[in-house]
């Protein structure tokens, strides 16, 4: 094994790559892997993952073998390395047989520092044979989240990469990904046999983004319009909506109110999508109203705000979508408005999905985490980053909760009334009806069902309609009420509601209808 000089990595960093210093945890990761340790590196795109295996590959004897599913990027990476004087090559299906043979013979003669290989190629018995005869510095498994069967990028070949660990137990492995949620991380560790690997999570904070999440009391569209007019006039932004219909309607409505907005969703022709996307990138101050179909691979540095008119289905989605704001590092806003109906719709979609139990449980868990982020009274950035395992010292001073700490109230009694009213009405009715009963309204339906004779009829004078709806949203968000599967939005009690009903648990909730903190136009930094 190579003798390790403490400053050798930094020497390579400067001499080969031309950088002054390591960024974030790079130095520590390089030291760990160069010394022969396994690592799992979670860093956002652009964070600087490549150096984490490239430098150890140069420091250690033998060739660093990089597994990557992104064939299109291999060539660029290898080209860039060659320009820095690194002996690099790649093996994938785009290479001619002859060119492939040449690379293989360079591998055999120890003439390579780094070899990029597509996973299916690496797993060929012949290839594994060749590697067994070569001296290998390390294995780097890029885009490691591809082992996750539940992710969008699942690659069956990735699961078979456990063979590396079995056939080459002495070779250090470093797995890298930008997907950092706990479930994916665990799957990577299990499937790739990385139980002993050190985990490095870093770089997920986007300090220039101000997070704001407000519950949609009243007209969310109107609030969005006010937000754009007051804080981002003439600036570029993205507005995410759940459905194509809503996208069309919101884009049209914003245009009617004098803003420059375009729709984008998968229902538009490819040509129109292309045109709108090109305009968004090229023109200044355009607002793209879009479904989540928009944004992949969009690199526009001066997006000043990302707004959500619906609840994203997971914290990962929220982070990724809001992350499209402020790539230039200047102040940007992540603004979201969500309401009772969002929570109900997502819960129902989930309950009604055809997925198996394990997957449903995972999705429920993801939505719960998203709802917890919405309802928290703590620093949003803290909750967001800790979800990814990025240790972060809250408060951040740049989220709504930090800027104007939310008030809370003791909602125990009100929650007890709400829950017992759900119970008394037979756990079949939706929020609207239960609120009618609580408020003692004399609708025909209430009377026909005899609900005006219930003990909970008219006991809810302390809150108005909006107040009760908000409370129900929070109860559903906190898992104290479940929404039925049939699609009528009928509410049921859950295990978690019992302690509250019995008076054994107290419930403190954020006070409703707090206007979100504004970013002062005159920036005082
Ligand atoms: P990732 O693979 O995490 O998306 P890359 O490894 O491609 O990120 O790095 C992103 C960019 O940051 C590249 O342009 C790279 O040259 C640059 N970079 C990485 N590390 C450093 C560093 N220590 N100093 C300066 N620039 C760096
Ligand atoms: Zn904060």
UniProtKB/TrEMBL annotation:
Family from the record: Belongs to the helicase family. RecQ subfamily.
GO molecular function: 3'-5' DNA helicase activity; ATP binding; DNA binding; four-way junction helicase activity; hydrolase activity; metal ion binding
Catalytic activity entry: Couples ATP hydrolysis with the unwinding of duplex DNA by translocating in the 3'-5' direction
Protein EC: 5.6.2.4
GO cellular component terms, semicolon-separated: bacterial nucleoid; cytoplasm; replisome
Protein name listed in UniProt: DNA helicase RecQ
Organism: Acidihalobacter aeolianus
Transmembrane domains' residue ranges: none
Helicase ATP-binding domain ranges (all copies): 30-198
Residues annotated as domain Helicase C-terminal: 220-370
Cofactor(s) listed in the protein's UniProt record: Zn(2+); Mg(2+)
Any one Gene Ontology BP term: SOS response
Keywords: ATP-binding, DNA damage, DNA recombination, DNA repair, DNA-binding, Helicase, Hydrolase, Isomerase, Metal-binding, Nucleotide-binding, Zinc
């Amino acid at each position: 094994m190579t003798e390790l000089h403490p400053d050798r990595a930094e020497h390579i960093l400067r001499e080969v790559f031309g950088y002054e210093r390591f960024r974030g945890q790079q130095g520590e990761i390089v030291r760990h892997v160069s010394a022969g340790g396994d690592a799992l590196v979670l860093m956002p795109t652009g964070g600087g993952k490549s150096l984490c295996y490239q430098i150890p590959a140069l420091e250690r004897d033998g060739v660093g073998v990089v597994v990557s599913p992104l064939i299109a990027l291999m060539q660029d990476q290898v080209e860039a390395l060659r320009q820095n004087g690194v002996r690099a090559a790649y093996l994938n299906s785009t290479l001619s047989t002859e060119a492939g043979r040449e690379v293989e013979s360079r591998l055999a003669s120890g003439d390579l520092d780094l070899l990029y290989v597509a996973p299916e190629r690496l797993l060929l018995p012949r290839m594994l044979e060749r590697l067994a005869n070569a001296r290998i510095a390390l294995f780097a498994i890029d885009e490691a989240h591809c082992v996750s069967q539940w992710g969008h990028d699942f690659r069956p070949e990735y699961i078979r990469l456990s063979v590396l660990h079995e056939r080459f137990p002495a070779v250090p492995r470093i797995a890298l990904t930008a997907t950092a949620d706990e479930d994916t991380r665990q799957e990577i560790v299990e499937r790739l046999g990385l139980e002993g690997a050190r985990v490095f999570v870093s770089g997920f904070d986007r300090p220039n983004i101000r997070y704001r999440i407000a519950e949609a009391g009243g007209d969310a569209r109107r609030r969005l319009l006010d937000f754009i007019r007051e804080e981002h006039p003439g600036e570029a932004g993205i507005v995410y909506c759940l459905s194509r219909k809503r996208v069309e309607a919101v884009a049209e409505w914003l245009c009617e109110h004098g803003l420059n907005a375009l729709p984008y969703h998968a229902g538009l022709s490819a040509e129109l999508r292309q045109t709108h996307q090109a305009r968004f990138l090229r023109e200044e101050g355009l607002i793209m109203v879009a479904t989540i179909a928009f944004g992949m691979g969009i690199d526009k540095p001066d997006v000043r705000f990302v707004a959500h008119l619906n609840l994203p289905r997971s914290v990962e989605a929220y982070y990724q979508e809001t992350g499209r704001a402020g790539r230039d590092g200047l102040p940007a806003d992540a603004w979201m408005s969500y309401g009772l109906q969002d929570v109900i719709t997502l819960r129902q979609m989930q309950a009604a999905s055809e997925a198996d139990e394990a997957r449903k449980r995972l999705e429920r868990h993801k939505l719960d985490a998203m709802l917890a982020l919405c309802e928290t009274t703590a620093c949003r950035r803290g909750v967001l980053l800790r979800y990814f395992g990025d240790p972060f010292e809250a408060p951040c001073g740049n989220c709504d909760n930090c800027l104007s700490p939310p008030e809370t109230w003791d909602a125990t009694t009100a929650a007890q009334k709400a829950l017992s009213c759900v119970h008394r009405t037979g756990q079949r009715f939706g929020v609207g009806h239960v609120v009618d009963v609580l408020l003692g309204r004399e609708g025909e339906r209430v009377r026909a069902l005899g609900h005006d004779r219930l003990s909970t009829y008219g006991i809810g004078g302390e809150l108005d309609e909006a107040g009760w709806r908000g409370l129900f949203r929070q109860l559903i968000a906190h898992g104290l009420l479940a929404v039925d599967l049939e699609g009528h939005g009928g509410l049921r009690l859950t295990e978690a509601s019992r302690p509250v009903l019995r008076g054994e648990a107290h419930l403190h909730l954020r006070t409703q209808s707090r206007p979100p903190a504004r970013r002062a136009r005159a920036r005082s930094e």
